[in-house]
């Protein structure tokens, strides 16, 4: 399972949220890989350019091998971050594959934003993008208001409900991948 998320700031709230979901997936038996921050600093996606940076190759190959993904974006101005959107644009490189885009893959989604409106709209955008890429969003998605919930450095949060939601998202991705 591949985790894509966070911001350019190491240990950001959205990265910590993603790690909770990935840790839950690992506890359920999944092999996990987190791609965050510097891993996602990629040139703007351009399908006309066939050369890829080592980071872009690593991202695309990790997704190609994955049976599931967890994607957590910060919400900026009511939308997902450009960092996460650009990383998802690279999924286009999987178009010619036998399993194109995110076809047949479970995708757990969460958004972390300072305010409910941005958290909810960001999650909605992540779901829309996942559908467009033929992925299967988990039944549960996470909208987390970072004005009310703070994640700590050891895998917890100020609100246990947020932790339980993220853990369930991680388990749902593993469960779907096993059934698939």
From TrEMBL:
Signal peptide: none annotated. Residues 2-139 form the NADPH-dependent FMN reductase-like domain. It comes from the Bacteria. Pfam families: FMN_red (PF03358). This is NAD(P)H-dependent oxidoreductase.
